[in-house]
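Subject: sequence -> structure tokens, single chain

Hey, anyone have a minute? Need the predicted structure for the following. Not urgent.
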Amino acid sequence: MQQDTLSQGFGTVWKDLFSSPVHLDSLLSRQTPRMKSVLAQVLPLILQRPVSLAEDLGIGVAPGEPWSLSPEQLRNWPAATQMALELHSRMQGDGAPTVRALEDDFPPKWVAELKAQWSDATVRAILTALVRRPPVTLRFSRKVDRAQVLAGWKKSGTIPVKVTETGASPVGLELADYTPVFHLPEYERGEFEIQDEGSQVMSIFALEAEAAAHVLRPEPGAMPPEVARVRLPEGKWGQLRVADACAGAGGKSLAMADLMKGQGRVFSYDISDRKIQALKRRARHAGLNNIQGMALVEGKELEALSKFEGTVDRVLVDAPCSGWGVLKRNPDIKWRQDREALERFPGIQLRLLKSYSTLVKPGGQLTFGTCTFRKSETIEVVQAFNAELGARFKPVAGGFFGPAASDGFFMQAWVRI
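Reply:
Had a minute. Here:
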């Protein structure tokens, strides 16, 4: 690709990134296939580690940049385009620079908050994990023997990158690098979905906390290599009622419905009808008939669900959050997130957790989850819930998973007394 063409295409996406709330993936989708392919390689690297990358490429960055720049200055930051051009040039020859992380690759207030909450070693582990290229992880249906699929792929050379079984999830395969998978016959038959390993673990944890509790840790970071794999949850699924309170496009709803062998009923709720419709399409593709999706009005969830109070066996509240645990996949978050939004999340999470807890029947399990490691959105929300509803809910297990080999998650389970 010509340098002038790349410079123009990169400049358009970069400026739009700081002029609108549109997600990076949506901005890239507006480009030609060739331009999208190139930008998908260089843009995330620049967003993940702007300062260390600039140093490695020999590009000058003034002290404090880019975090000291205004949105207008960011839209016209010359170092970004220089990095894109140099990165593309190196990728055609000797390859991209070695990955390393500096504190300067993250907003100073962001780093200061982490340091106030976690040890130096934990902060280093988090920052190092968040600049790594995320793996592509597949979740296979319980109806499929993933070991047989893996053996078949290796024998036939179907997948041109290294594929291994996931370390914790009993239903996942991890691809070392990106490669197209949606054309594969296994996908066309609905036998797998793309789903991060941490998300797979949370889906199992939400059905049976004891099956996954041993892989959780009191602090975010790497999973010790000696940790045993999560076991598949076993139960009498026929009569089980599960509610996924913040289902989004339904990754965890689909996983739970499949883990339940297509039995029982998963009720998936979200305030976005577009996401609920996407969930329904994915459920049909996977051949899952035990999912019922419904769009709710924000703030009026209980009005629509009051008839289910005290009747649900499992309730998962995978609440809206800062998303710091998924920065490997969505590095633009740290560039565009304001403090006001961060301060609102804990209140929203506690409200949703308290509201949906009313659905749990005695003896049933309530699970709270977020894809972040900020204490205000994890441990402190749990403490606040315990202070208010500890007489009705007994904590049974909880902790962090990732963000080393996977995205970063927090999860906590209670049993309704």
